[in-house]
């Protein structure tokens, strides 16, 4: 950790969740800094899980990876990869892309299937897979999806992250939640377009 706190301003806010605010790192365009709103429970759980994934040499190619802690003027910050498009703009979330009608759920479905298969193949648990926690990186060849939040063991049972059948059950449960949220977005868009 650096001695002088990193100064974060509202202009640097990339997103806000229930538990944390995410800021663009003012000195490193490849990183974001997540600062807890009330307590660090979610961040600590994620750090612990990333330590486990790193020890097991897990393929983290579709995940915004934890890169370390930093001091900020807003309190302790946790740095993660910041996903950017080929033009260096910060990638939009799946929710933003769908609500702006940049593409349809049907169009992005093959990439969603690929993301789910990646999580299963690499035994990666995600606590909450939501359209706001998936980033859509625009490349010259299309769109890549990344999980940008909620990567942690959602269960107090430590075997959940070690046994493939329990990992699959955890991912399936989280994925059903994602599908429900996507269906809600689709219904809202259809009623807006009528």
Brief characterization of the structure:
This protein is α+β, with helices and mostly antiparallel strands.
Structural summary, described in words:
- With 194 residues, the protein is α+β, with helices and mostly antiparallel strands.
- The termini are far apart.
- The protein contains four helices and eight strands.
- Helix 3 packs antiparallel against helix 4 (164-193).
- It has helices at residues 41-55, 94-99, 105-121, 164-193, and strands at residues 13-16, 20-24, 31-36, 66-72, 75-81, 92-93, 134-139, 142-147.
- It has a five-stranded antiparallel beta sheet, covered by helices on one side. The protein has a three-stranded antiparallel beta sheet with strand order 6-7-8.
- The chain is 35% helix and 22% strand.
- Strand 2 and strand 3 form a beta hairpin.
- The longest helix has 30 residues, at 164-193.
Q: Summarize the amount of helix as a percent range.
A: 25-40%
What is the N-to-C order of secondary-structure elements (H for helix, E for strand)? Answer: EEEHEEEHHEEH
Tally of helical runs: 4
Number of strands: 8
Strand residue content: 15-25%
């Amino acid at each position: 950790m650096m001695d002088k706190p990193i100064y974060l301003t509202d202009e640097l806010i990339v997103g806000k969740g229930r538990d944390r605010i995410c800021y663009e790192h003012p000195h490193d365009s490849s990183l974001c800094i997540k600062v807890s709103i009330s307590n660090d429970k979610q961040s600590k759980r994620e750090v612990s899980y990333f330590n486990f994934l790193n020890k097991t040499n897990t393929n983290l190619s579709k995940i915004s990876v934890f890169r370390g802690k930093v001091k900020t003027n807003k309190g302790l910050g946790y740095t993660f990869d910041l996903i950017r498009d080929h033009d260096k703009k910060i990638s939009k979330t799946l929710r933003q892309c769908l609500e702006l009608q940049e593409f349809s759920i049907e169009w992005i479905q093959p990439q969603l299937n690929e993301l789910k298969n990646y999580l299963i193949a690499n035994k990666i648990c995600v606590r909450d897979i939501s359209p706001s926690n998936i980033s859509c990186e625009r490349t010259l060849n299309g769109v890549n999806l990344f999980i940008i939040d909620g990567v942690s063991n959602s269960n107090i049972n430590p075997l959940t992250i070690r046994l493939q059948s329990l990992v699959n059950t955890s991912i399936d449960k989280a994925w059903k939640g994602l599908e429900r949220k996507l269906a809600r977005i689709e219904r809202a868009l259809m009623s807006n377009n009528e």
